[in-house]
Amino acid sequence: MVAISKSEFGIDIEKVKPIKPTTLKKALSDIELNEIYKVQNDDLRSQKLLKIWTIKESILKAVGTGLTIHPSKISINNNQGTLNNTSYRYFNIPHVPGFVGSIAMKEGKTVI
C-alpha cells in the first residue's frame, strides 16, 4: 500500500481471523459492541470487529500516539471518528481477500 499526504495520517491492516467480541470488548463502546453482536455469522462478525479495530488503530496512528491512548476513547460514526473533540475522517481500504484495513486523517485533510 502507498499513501501520500502533506499531513499526518494513519493506516492499519489486519488479517481476518476468528476473533471473539470479548477479546476486544474493552476497546469498544456499548453501541459498537451491540452492532457486533447483531451479526449472526461468526466469520462476518470477526470481519466487522476487525474493521472497527482498524479504524480505531488508524486514528491513533494518525494522532501519533499509537496504543498509548486507549481505543475506547474513540467514538466512530458515519466515516468519522472523534478523539478528544478532534474529528478524524476514515476510509475502509478496498477489499483485499483475507484482510481488512482503514486509513484515517484529521477532518479536512487529504491523502492520495
From TrEMBL:
Residues 9-82 form the 4'-phosphopantetheinyl transferase domain. GO terms for biological process: lysine biosynthetic process via aminoadipic acid. Keywords: Transferase. The keyword Transferase applies. Gene3D superfamilies: 4'-phosphopantetheinyl transferase domain (3.90.470.20). One of its GO terms (molecular function) is holo-[acyl-carrier-protein] synthase activity. It comes from the Bacteria. GO terms for cellular component: cytosol. The keyword Zinc does not apply. Belongs to the P-Pant transferase superfamily. Gsp/Sfp/HetI/AcpT family. This is 4'-phosphopantetheinyl transferase domain-containing protein. It comes from Pediococcus argentinicus.
